[in-house]
From TrEMBL:
Molecular function terms, GO-annotated: oxidoreductase activity
Keyword Oxidoreductase among record annotations: yes
This protein's name: SDR family NAD(P)-dependent oxidoreductase
Family: Belongs to the short-chain dehydrogenases/reductases (SDR) family.
Provenance organism: Sporosarcina soli
Keyword set, alphabetical order: Oxidoreductase
Gene3D superfamilies named in the record: NAD(P)-binding Rossmann-like Domain (3.40.50.720)
EC number: 1.1.1.-
Amino acid sequence: MTNQLLEGKVAIVTGSSRGIGKAIAIGLAQQGAKVLVTGTNAERTQAVADEIVQQTGQESAYFVGDLSQEENVIAMVETVIDKWDKVDILVNNAGGGVILPFLEQTSETLKTTIDRNLWTMLWSCHKVLPYMVQQNFGRIINIGADSVRNGLWDHAAYNAAKGGVHAIVSGLGREFAKNNITANVIAPPAVEGELLDDIRDRDTQLVDRYIDIIPIGRGAYPEEVADAVVFLASDKATFINGQVISVNGGSTMQ
């Protein structure tokens, strides 16, 4: 493939063994990036890395571990550096909240939601940024949530975590701009796929409410989110920094 937007770049995509993260990992590889796939299920995570090689011809590797734990994130970054000697792009996609009415949340479900969404992102930024500073280049792209803006039903605890995922980019974007590093958020609404289908199986009416607020009348496709990530990771987005960009079908508008 010629004229690839990300030729020679190295990317980490957290939580990329399925769904949005898988689509992002494939999309980055299609544009020339070498990609580290991460997940918590070893078989599924390795399968995605193998699929990337087969589909795109790009190099791919994988890492398995809970990225809310500092030691696992250190090991993840070492895996990339040992293999490719740099990291240019960090996509913080790992997440997944326990979606419940707020008063049905427990101490365990609240901690799980914060760990999965906020701590995975914080540790990943903290451990990747030194390498980006050293090479004077980096692109950090967090996957946020449109529910932070639209107050989606049963998402209060999830929004507490994703709100931090949104908020950090203004600080990172200002602090590290001098190092040619940008930090931005892509905020999707409900996303079609197995995770939404799982909720649909439990409560069809709840999913209908999620979709009803999207004027286009459906959830986002993972590839639509991936396309926005590829753009932000590329040289076409060098002057976009510290922003939350909604890819939401109009579920919230400005």
